[in-house]
Specification:
With 179 residues, the chain is an alpha/beta fold. The chain folds into 2 domains: 30 residues; 138 residues, Vaccinia Virus protein VP39 (Rossmann fold). The chain is 41% helix and 18% strand. The chain is built from 5 helices and 7 strands; from the N terminus they run H-H-E-H-E-H-E-E-H-E-E-E. Strand 2, helix 4 and strand 3 form a beta-alpha-beta unit. The chain is globular, with a radius of gyration of 18 Å. The relative contact order is 0.14. The structure holds S-adenosylmethionine (SAM).
């Protein structure tokens, strides 16, 4: 009996992982989505030391994954409105579960970032890929208010000039934009 239970659990876990990798591969190849990778904490710490955020600001992490940026941010700034936008089911679920632990709430929206209205954002953080940044630039150009800060890890916006670029050596680059 124990053997059967172990076999069933192993099969369920296998199906979960199989579906996760299959959906990730489909999203990357056919939709051009960035893969599920996390910004390293050394890069996040540096980012936080550079950002100045006013109390009550609305902050988005686009393609939130495990929402490492928002989770780190809420420790330093408990009064922000934090929103993670994530399309893929498993990263969204993992992000929600991880964010449920700890002080301060993070709202999670399961949606394509290109279809979410960002016009109320004060700060936007993203770690995506070249093709998504190309599509995002026009959207941000229409929706960002004067003064909104946008930070992209590793992938710059194709045409907008960065206000500041931080070189993190082996950890890559952080591009800061101001609208
Ligand atoms: C490189 S990971 C970054 C995760 C997290 N922001 C971080 O920095 O640790 C990119 C995430 O964006 C999500 N993603 C990619 N394209 C997306 C889109 N168009 N809409 C919503 N989520 C997207 C992926 O599923 C993945 O979880």
């Amino acid at each position: 009996m124990t053997g059967v239970i172990i076999q069933v659990i192993t099969l369920i876990l296998f199906l979960f992982f199989f579906e996760f990798f299959l959906v990730q591969a489909y999203n990357m190849i056919f939709r051009g989505y960035a893969p599920f990778l996390a910004t390293k904490s050394v890069a996040l710490r540096r980012l936080l030391s550079e950002l100045k955020i006013k109390e009550g600001a609305k902050v988005y992490e686009l393609g939130a994954g495990r929402a490492g940026f928002l989770r780190m941010l809420r420790k330093q700034y408990p009064k922000l409105e934090l929103i993670g936008v994530e399309y893929s089911f498993f990263p969204w679920l993992i992000g929600r579960l991880q964010s449920a632990v700890g002080k301060g709430s993070i709202k999670f929206v399961r949606a394509n970032i290109l279809k979410v209205n960002l016009s109320d954002a004060d700060v936007v953080y993203c770690y995506l890929n070249v093709s998504t940044m190309n599509k995002l630039e026009e959207k941000l150009g229409h929706e960002m208010r004067d003064g909104t800060q946008v930070v992209s890890y590793q992938f710059p916006l194709p045409s907008k000039e960065a206000e500041k670029v931080i070189d993190l050596g082996e950890e890559g680059k952080m591009f800061f934009y101001r609208y």
